[in-house]
Design goal:
Helix 1 runs antiparallel to helix 2. The chain has 15 helices and 27 strands. With about 525 residues, the protein is an alpha/beta fold.
């Protein structure tokens, strides 16, 4: 769609106009007001434009840990119509090199603690600058040099790309989802309406995930309402410190993933710090198991908000309100359709399936991304008759609540029967000794594939296959009970804090398979 829309930078412009002296960003013991953040952002936007010749549509890579520079550079890019390309700070240099080459980025901003990343080679990468390196072409030096400048805000169209959002993916290289000025403006309004009603300038949002991904989008929502973004001083996540910050700054909302939320509510610090200020604890990235939901509700009260969605749909598919959590008759639901979106459960031919039938979750609406950057093959595979195909399997009940049963790629076939790991995982987590679980299929001579359960138990208690089988026998049908059980001390997770079946399956096959 090519018609004029408001540049996303206008949200920052309005926050600075309406709340000039209120805090915009708190990072450790440093703090910036909205007027200061706007001045710094304008200055860096001017540096990009005049020092490096960045034009509308040019790509700017930012490889940095959470901090005010990562936050500001996003808004600076949008001010001049450039495309923001954040990189996960935990990624390898070769992964950053691939991003630079595949996007044709013109400028790269790299933190001084990642010299190998700063030295990557890419054909069109003309300019490099650092964050935190004295005597070099440094971000804060450029801001100081251009302070007082106010570059014109670029005119943008609905489909002008604002952010290349890298999806985690289940195989191969990650794909860059093009999120546009028009799409993200819809997402901002939708997130406020569905996830954080009443968000305003007195709110404080704690950042406990990388701003390069979902937490970055969450910070954009805060700017739209003038709320404060609170960034811990230490880049390493610490549960006890998170609760101390929540208590000290009276945090009202935060975004996280189920595994991190589980760590937070299981830390003893949850009982020693005041968290009564919390109104919205938003989690996404993966479904949260029912037993974990119930425990979190006991600790925090009715503040949990779940949303389901991929980076391609900017999280905008379903949501589960606080009052809808923990309902035993809707165990495992990811909620109902987001405002302004449409969902269908479709079969392999694209035909809509009735309630109760399992198929692929497909969606359409203004929250859907423009497409993958320079990837026509992926676009052709991901869209069908105007619907975005998520690749997730699920079903809807008669009341419009959706349930995910897993990724299509995660389903395995044992003895001719399709098995979705999600159902089995939910039941295993009802065992009092199990804290984490991952179920997947592995090859088997007789049955084609069989299920394996990798577990983490409370206090590393032993749990045999026979014991687990006995526990599950009254809960699920026999052919779904895992053929093997492995108990590990910890569950490996991705850079985004997710349990990745492919990673765990590979490790299992290497060290535990008989």
């Amino acid at each position: 769609m090519q018609f004029p829309v408001t540049n996303l930078n206008n949200f920052l412009e309005l926050a600075a106009r309406h709340f000039p002296e209120r805090p915009s960003v708190i990072w450790g013991d440093r703090q910036w007001s909205w007027s200061e953040t706007k001045s710094r952002t304008d200055a860096f936007a001017q540096a990009l434009r005049t020092r490096f010749g960045v034009k509308p549509g040019d790509r700017v890579i930012v490889h940095a840990p959470n901090g005010n520079q990562l936050f500001e550079s996003m808004w600076a890019c949008w001010r001049i119509g450039a495309i923001f390309v954040p990189s996960n700070f935990r990624s390898m240099p070769k992964e950053l090199a691939w991003i630079a080459e595949s996007t044709g980025a013109k400028v790269m901003i790299c933190h001084a603690t990642a010299p190998d990343h700063a030295a990557i080679h890419a054909p069109e990468l003309e300019h490099r600058l650092t964050i935190g390196e004295e005597g070099a072409l440094d971000y804060d030096m450029l801001v100081a040099e251009h302070m007082g400048a106010t570059p014109p805000m670029a005119d943008v169209m609905y489909d002008d790309t604002a952010w290349l959002f890298y999806t985690s993916g289940t195989s191969g290289k990650p794909k860059a989802a093009e999120q546009t000025h028009g799409q993200l403006a819809f997402i901002i309004n939708n997130h406020i309406a569905d996830l954080m009603p009443g968000l305003c300038e007195t709110d404080v949002s704690l950042v406990i995930a990388p701003l390069s991904h979902g937490a970055g989008l969450h910070s954009v929502i805060q700017v739209a309402r003038g709320a404060t973004t609170l960034i811990p001083a230490n880049a390493s996540f610490n549960t006890a410190h998170a609760w101390e910050l929540i208590d000290r700054h009276k945090v009202t909302n935060m975004f996280t993933v189920p595994t991190i939320l589980k760590m937070l509510v299981e830390d003893p610090a949850v009982d020693t710090h005041d968290h009564s200020s919390l109104r919205h604890v938003i989690y996404a990235g993966a479904p949260m198991y029912h037993t974990d939901q119930v425990y979190a509700l006991e600790k925090l009260g009715p503040v949990l908000v779940q949303y389901y969605g991929l980076g391609e749909v900017t999280g905008c598919i379903t949501y589960l309100r606080p009052d809808q959590h923990g309902q035993p008759d809707r165990k495992g639901t990811c909620g109902r359709t987001r405002t302004g979106m449409q969902i269908e459960i479709q079969d392999e031919s694209g035909r809509a399936l009735p309630p109760g039938s399992t198929g692929e979750v497909c969606t359409r609406g203004l929250g859907v991304f423009k497409g993958y950057w320079n990837n026509p093959k992926a676009n052709a595979e991901s869209f069908r008759n105007g619907w975005f195909r998520t690749g997730d399997l699920g079903h809807m009940d008669e009341d419009g609540y959706f349930y995910l049963t897993g990724r299509a790629s995660e389903m395995f076939i044992s003895g001719g029967s399709n098995i979705s790991p999600r159902e089995i995982e939910e039941e295993i987590l009802c065992h009092p000794d199990v804290t984490e679980v991952c179920v997947f299929g592995v090859p088997h001579e007789k049955w084609g594939e069989v299920g394996v359960a990798v577990l983490v138990t409370r206090d590393n208690r032993p749990l045999s296959h026979a014991d687990l089988k006995a526990f599950l026998s009254a809960r699920i049908t026999g052919y779904k009970i895992p053929h093997d059980v492995a108990v590990w001390e910890t569950m490996p997770k991705s850079n985004n804090g997710k349990i990745t079946k492919r990673m765990i399956r590979d490790i299992y096959l290497e060290k535990d398979a008989g």
